[in-house]
């Protein structure tokens, strides 16, 4: 079942006893058992290496064999669960021969001490924000299989940008552990880096797209188009992850695995394209059948490429046997279909008795359809001779039957594939159709040896696109925005403890110069004034008379200062000690210039040039852990904004002395 709360967080109720939730419960139970067995194996291996007693070594070796056997059984059980695709499809979805990636359950141990230690504020004041974050994270663990679930994952992914800036510093370890399970083996991985959390969420975005694509009704063109879009976006998510993250702690997020997943998604797109062409091809023209043959050959080729990727050394022992078998079955099946449609074009559809141009076009299409020239007469002569066409068509059918039988043989070797009734029906029906067609063309007086039919040249009229994720479509607000603007109040900045300074309102004003917005900066202190006793140049005003003003505009802070009573005003300030190196130097330089500007009005042009340079400061990359250098400063950072953009955009209007 699905659940929606007041925060508009949509996720599946983990306690709801639906078929899919039961499946997820079983996967979670198996993951926990695998985790337990892995710990036992690690302990046994350490004991085996540490002991010198031969009897103990024999006992430990025996235990290790039992543990490894249990692990293998658990992984096979998990593989069988990963092949239970029916619960992710609609009742009308007739094509079960699709691959879907399952989301990995996760667990986080949050820390609240950082708010108190780093920001100097009581963490209980932010209980609401912490609760909202944890509810968002809990909901994204079980997203609904639709657009709302995708938006939920992207919302959390975008929030991780703000969490990175707020709480994760290179100088201090936060002590937060992110636990995820490998999507195929169930082996747990634990990391402290937030980038691991980002990558895992991004992987689940791609996995969710595969499930959305698998549940589409592909008996109609509208459903096929939705499936194509979903699989292309899944390929984009996996490809984005491959290009932007490295040193993955689990195999499912490694570069070879992600490359395999991208190719697998594109192969399913190509299969959907073929299905749409078979639905929309109404005429039985000669060239239309040749087009179907080439499209089927294209599907076979892309699945063959996926199979080669799956059999590489690193992937060979990782990818489930049912996946490798399915890919091989599809490659053989669609290669058989390509020969079948070529035979149908030769034997059932004569050339139109039209003009010479149409005959030349058909002859050109027929020649391009074959990857090589068959032995015997030229292809142009074959087209004009019905008997030669029959013999070449019979040769294509012979190859089609051989390919069908190979697909059925591979299918019979996999226990999981044998349980897929729809797949069994499709393979049997197409095999019987090719056999029946071959029987029609077979004659008793055929004593000539059947020539070997050439392979069909693969070609497609719609190449798959890799659609990268567009995170800007989901707008988010920083959950912890009450901590203050990220330009100052971030994890990479260090400042002294908050000071409360009481300023008395006397003739001549308070004796300070203010500048900027959110937060307002003390740009200068008049020597000998009342403000000199407590304020320093470069302080940020965070509260006036106990009222928070981290996000206040310049005019609002000025109004609060001017409206104070005769007894004076209490100003809470903080002093920035260190920041990002370039930005820190820029702040100091701008502060010094501000005092000069308050005395020398002829420096306006210099200040304008300085501000133009400040705007060019780039922010830290969103994916700053193990991010590949070639992608630093990419569109994600630009969309979400600069974390260190100084809010001094209108100095000329907001700087004043009070």
TrEMBL record:
The protein's name in its UniProt record: Rhophilin, Rho GTPase binding protein 1
A Pfam family the protein falls into: PDZ
Alphabetic keyword roster: Coiled coil
Source organism, top-level taxon: Eukaryota
Family: Belongs to the RHPN family.
REM-1 domain ranges (all copies): 13-87
Chain ranges of the BRO1 domain: 84-444
Domain PDZ span(s) in chain numbering: 500-563
Xref: SMART domains: BRO1 (SM01041), Hr1 (SM00742), PDZ (SM00228)
Source organism (scientific name): Neolamprologus brichardi
GO biological process, one term: signal transduction
Coiled coil spans: 64-91
Keyword Coiled coil included in the entry's annotation: yes
Gene3D superfamilies: 2.30.42.10, alix/aip1 like domains (1.25.40.280), HR1 repeat (1.10.287.160)
């Amino acid at each position: 079942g699905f659940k929606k709360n007041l925060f508009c967080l949509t996720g599946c109720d983990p306690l709801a006893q639906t078929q899919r939730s039961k499946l997820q419960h079983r996967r979670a139970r198996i993951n926990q058992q695998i985790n337990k067995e892995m710990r036992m194996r690690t302990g046994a291996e350490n004991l085996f290496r540490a002991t010198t007693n031969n009897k103990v070594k024999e006992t430990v070796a025996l235990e290790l064999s039992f543990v490894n056997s249990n692990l293998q059984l658990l992984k096979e059980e998990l593989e069988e669960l990963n092949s239970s695709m029916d619960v992710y499809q609609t009742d009308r979805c007739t094509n079960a021969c699709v691959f879907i990636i399952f989301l990995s359950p996760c667990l986080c141990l949050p820390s609240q001490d950082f708010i108190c230690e780093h920001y100097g504020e009581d963490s209980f004041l932010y209980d609401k924000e912490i609760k909202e974050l944890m509810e968002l994270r809990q909901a994204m663990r079980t997203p609904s299989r639709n657009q709302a679930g995708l938006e939920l994952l992207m919302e959390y992914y975008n929030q991780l940008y703000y969490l990175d800036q707020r709480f994760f510093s290179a100088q201090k370890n936060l002590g937060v552990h992110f636990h995820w399970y490998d999507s195929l083996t169930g082996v747990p991985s634990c990391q402290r880096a937030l980038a691991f959390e980002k990558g895992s969420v991004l992987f689940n975005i791609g996995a969710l797209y595969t499930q959305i694509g698998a549940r589409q009704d592909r008996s109609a063109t509208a459903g096929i188009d939705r499936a194509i879009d979903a699989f292309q976006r899944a390929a984009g998510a996996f490809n984005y992850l491959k290009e932007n993250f490295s040193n993955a702690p689990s195999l499912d997020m490694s570069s070879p695995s992600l490359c395999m997943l991208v190719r697998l998604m594109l192969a399913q797109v190509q299969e959907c394209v073929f299905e749409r062409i078979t639905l929309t091809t109404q005429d039985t023209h000669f060239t239309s059948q040749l087009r179907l043959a080439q499209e089927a050959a294209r599907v076979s080729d892309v699945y063959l490429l996926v199979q080669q990727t799956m059999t590489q050394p690193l992937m060979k022992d990782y990818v489930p046997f049912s996946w490798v078998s399915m890919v091989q079955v599809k490659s053989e099946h669609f290669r058989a279909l390509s020969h079948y449609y070529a035979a149908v074009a030769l034997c059932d559809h004569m050339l139109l008795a039209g003009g010479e141009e149409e005959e030349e076009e058909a002859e050109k299409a027929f020649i391009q359809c074959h990857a090589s020239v068959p032995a015997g007469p030229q292809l142009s002569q074959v087209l004009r001779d019905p008997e030669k066409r029959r013999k070449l068509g019979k040769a294509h059918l012979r190859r089609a039957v051989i390919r069908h039988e190979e697909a059925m043989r591979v299918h019979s070797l996999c226990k999981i594939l044998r349980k897929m009734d729809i797949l069994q029906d499709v393979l049997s029906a197409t095999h019987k159709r090719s056999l029946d067609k071959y029987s029609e063309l077979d004659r008793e007086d055929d004593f000539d040896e059947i020539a070997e039919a050439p392979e069909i040249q693969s070609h497609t009229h719609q190449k798959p696109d890799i659609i990268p994720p567009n995170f800007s479509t989901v707008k988010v607000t920083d959950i912890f925005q009450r901590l203050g603007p990220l330009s100052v109040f971030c994890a990479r900045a260090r400042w002294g403890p908050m000071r409360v300074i009481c300023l008395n309102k006397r003739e001549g004003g308070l004796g300070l110069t203010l500048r900027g917005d959110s937060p307002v900066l003390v740009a200068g202190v008049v020597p000998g004034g009342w403000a000199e006793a407590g304020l320093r140049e470069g302080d940020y005003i965070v509260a006036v008379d106990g009222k928070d003003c981290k996000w206040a505009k310049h005019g609002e802070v000025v109004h609060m200062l001017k409206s104070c009573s005769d007894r004076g005003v209490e100003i809470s300030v903080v002093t920035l000690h260190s920041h990002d190196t370039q930005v820190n130097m820029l702040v100091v330089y701008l502060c010094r210039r501000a005092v000069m500007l308050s005395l020398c009005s002829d420096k306006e042009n210099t200040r304008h040039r300085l501000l133009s340079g400040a705007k060019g400061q780039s922010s830290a990359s969103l994916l700053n852990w193990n991010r590949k250098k070639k992608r630093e400063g990419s569109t994600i950072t630009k969309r979400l904004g600069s974390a260190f953009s100084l809010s001094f955009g209108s100095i000329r209007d907001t700087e004043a002395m009070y």
